[in-house]
Specification:
The chain has about 200 residues and is of the alpha+beta class. The chain has four helices and ten strands, in the order H-E-E-E-E-E-H-H-E-E-E-E-E-H.
């Protein structure tokens, strides 16, 4: 990913988006606090992205976004908002109404199915890095991961809310359905340039 970012910055390669699944692992962002790693049952990787600890694993779509903001507009805050908008639109296409919150990062779903007002669970994480106006890292959206694996960390530093997935919400959408929704919603937010040039894969 970093090699591709360098090539994009040098004008030697086009923008690229990877859709991947990882084996079970935890990653630590630049704000990760050691006490938030509760049970390192999986490998832990230090990353240069923003944010704290998160989990990646099978059943989760990880989206690595490598775009040239110098050409698109050098505004990191606007870029993060665009990522959120993109993910919200894609999730809406598969039947999930996700929202953002001003006091915490990520994508959140109100759990009206639990008959408790204002219970919210996280369905998507965002963690980015920008180097010389080229973006990398990106999104993680939960389709059907083992939600118990999030118990080894305080996800993104938020302990008062839970984590959910499409399957947990009773949404009969597959990884392929979400990928199609991501592809379709991308141009609505970012325009036709920088479209997907990597197929879904598991590294």
């Amino acid at each position: 990913m970093e090699a591709r970012v360098d090539a994009i910055r040098a004008g030697e390669a086009p923008e690229l988006i990877w859709l991947v699944e990882h084996p079970p692992l935890y990653t630590a962002g630049t704000s990760a606090a050691p006490e938030e790693l509760l049970d390192p049952r999986f490998p832990v990787y230090e990353t240069g992205r923003g944010g704290r600890y998160t989990y990646h694993g099978p059943g989760q779509r990880v989206v690595y976004v490598m775009l040239d903001l110098k050409r698109r507009g050098p505004d990191v805050r606007a870029y993060v908002h665009a990522l959120e908008d993109w993910a919200i639109r894609a999730l809406n296409c598969v039947g999930v109404e996700a929202e953002t919150r001003p006091d915490r990062i990520g994508l959140w779903v109100r759990r009206t199915d639990r008959n408790t007002p204002w219970v919210e669970d996280k369905i998507g994480a965002i963690g980015v890095r920008v180097r010389r106006w080229v973006t990398f890292h990106g999104l993680a959206l939960n389709v059907e991961p083992d939600l118990s694996h999030f118990g080894g960390i305080v996800p993104c530093g938020v302990s008062q809310h839970g984590v959910t997935s499409l399957v947990d919400l009773g949404i009969p959408a597959t990884m392929a359905d979400l990928d199609a929704a991501l592809r379709g919603a991308f141009a609505e937010v970012f325009g036709p340039e920088g479209s997907f040039s990597a197929a879904a894969r598991r590294p």
